Amino acid sequence: MKPNEDGPDHAMVHPPRRRGVLARFRANFLTGLVVVAPVGLTLWLIWTVTGWIDGWVLPFVPANYQPDRIFKALFGEDTAINLRGVGVVVFLIFTVVVGWIAKGLMGRSLIAWGESLVDRMPVVRSIYNGVKQVAETVFNQTEAKFDKACMIEYPRPGIWAVGFVSTIAKGEILAKLPDDEVMTVFLPTTPNPTSGFLLYVPKRDVTFLDMSVEDAAKLVISAGLVYPAAKQPTGNGATAAH
Questions:
Q1: pLDDT the model gives residue 241
Q2: Where are the alpha helices (DSSP H) in the chain?
Q3: Domain ranges in the chain?
Q4: Please, how many CA atoms are within 13 Å of residue 129, restricted to the half-sphere of its CB?
Q5: Is the entire prediction scored with pTM above 0.70?
Q6: How far apart are the C-alpha atoms of 166 and 190, rounded to whole Å?
């Protein structure tokens, strides 16, 4: 009888092949890249944006109050420090002061007078109104936000998509629809959630999710790769073992 014919129990068992040096190097590099890349890109973006704001704001600062002039006066002529971020501080202070003035009666009157002048300029009026609408949508603190995350069958029954419920359909829209309860659902695209579709869906066809709107947005942006962690049970619904 041949050595390997005694049965499966006597078959030779090969030890698992060890990964090569290059394979381990590649795995470690990819793992480190996942950690380093987000941090590096974030720091680079902050550094670039602050430098852009400095380059735009600092020319409006009087020469005697420029950061390099102040440091040379304090520490000597040979001192040269690239103090990035001063323009950001000046811009923040200036914006806060403008916002404080705009809330007052004189500020509101001045803004209304300026907008009345802009409305008389055909091209400038269109640009100003468009930018103003975008700014109010993005930065207005009282603007309504998405209520809940949901799922709807789209683009056909049996295929589900993640959406966001904004409001309940009202007015003429609701009057023209056959259902009494209709939800306004924004269906974002992946990976750019700023574009999408505005859908009016009967409430009975909307499946609400327990995850937050932020977690659902992460799920959409990552194309399903970043899934929100399951919530821990509160313990009230735990059943006794007996």
A1: 40
A2: 21-57, 67-75, 86-103, 105-118, 122-139, 171-176, 213-221
A3: 148-221
A4: 11
A5: no
A6: 19
